[in-house]
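Entry 12.
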Amino acid sequence: MPSTLFFNGTILTMDAQNSSPEAVLTEGHRIKDVGTEADLRACMPADTQERNLQGRTLMPAFIDPHGHFPDPGFIRLFRVDLSSPPLGDCRTMAQALDRLREKASATPEGEWIMGVSIDNTSILEGRMPTRAELDKVSQRHPIWVIHASGHNGTANSLALEKRGVTRHTPDPDGGRFGRDPETGALTGLIEGLSAMGEMGDTDFLIDRERFWQGFDACRDEYLTHGVTYAQNAWTSQTMLDHFASLPADQDPGIDIELLPVGRLEPELSTQWIGTNWPGNPHFTLGPRKLFTDGAFQLQTAYLSVPYFKPADPEHPRGMTYTSQEQLDADVSKLHSRGLQIHCHCNGDAGAEMFIDAVEKVLRAYPRADHRHTIIHGQALRDDQLERMAQLGLTVSFFPAHVYFWGERHYDTFLGPERSERISPAASAERFGVRYTIHNDASVTPTRPIHLAHCAVNRKTSSGRVLGEDQKISVLSALRAQTIDAAWQVFKEDRRGSIETGKIADFVVLSRNPLHDPNRLNDTQVLETIRAGQSVFAATYRKKEIEHT
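Predicted 3D structure (tokens):
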């Protein structure tokens, strides 16, 4: 097997000692040894390729602790991007409707038009489109516009008809259909996963061919930013079938952790797995996914204290997607089968539901190292973090919210005091709760360096520092996307750090990110190495290859 020696640069291993050796020797897709350059030269094969880092920084490739791969690829290829600044450039409802109209004019009659990433808190009008507005775009195409959070959307009349929703359709548990308060007519708004149904799934309108096209586009994007281990954190049965269609002997070019929808159990384990899986070794079935609440942008994240400026007087604290009784039953079903659980909990009241459920199930079925994880945990309180440490719970924070929606948290969602604690990673450290950080792509794009910058510097898009005492170190932010991310899904023995025997997944950075936290966002991914092979190289590396 070919060997490569990496030397003459800063090497950040992310091992338990945060050591920084002189050199790394790989053999095939594994790390053979780590140590001094002299020692590794003494034992390396004669035909070893030498990689002079020329003072640049080598560290483990990034791991996505929570996201929805390959949804960003679907958006780029098949959907209409309606994101507003700072994510995109769609500033007004008129622009959004024009983009949908342009798509409709190029789409055969009867086929769906799907708009994505619209944000009622960022667009000028401060609202979602209406059914009437979408009907004016087209009555010959079903049109579905889903919010940036993925937790609500608006449909035109034809889309509502295809969804089977009429003015007489009752609201499901954990969801609702928007209605005119005077006439009761449908407004087109559909809120909550239970109400959206398949229209809320990331694979909506995606067939097998489109799946693999989107997969390739998303893979290339992730590799460009140094991510070699991604995550699909709400894997429906349809999506599982798509992933399972890849022959076991084919390398998809990236490794994926799949989090099946919790309600698929126990049939998934007792019937589907074994017949349709293990399948391709680059796809791993991981934790099962549950939800307790919605999103802050829609004020459906469930809080213990009302929103600073409630948008819905009838639900000033947000809403739950499930009852405590149902959540207890779901947690018990999964935990008792030995499965790990990742549970979406944005608000502190939503998190309390999951913490309570875990506490109950651990009394009935004790398990020392379950690593059940709260996803987002944006409003976690200190008393909750203390309980989590006692129960062995972990959390994956969403600090990108500080940049993209920090001003909204400050002046509308949480108010000045509570917004200072959004994604309280420093508090988690103080209480001994191990955590990761994520982008939740496609809610925000997978950009590990920018994500670390958000957690370290905690600046909103306008430059306000939101939560000085919740800042974490650069090293903590990088560990949260490497070794801690591997640990959170029981993969720390295979990846996440540069140690002998682990997979040779690396990134080469333009500078040492540990130097000057204020310049962290200037750091560039120059090369991504997956299983010992270069899979992305910026201009510098391409020129270097041409001259060897």
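Annotation: The longest strand covers residues 227-235. The mean pLDDT is 95.
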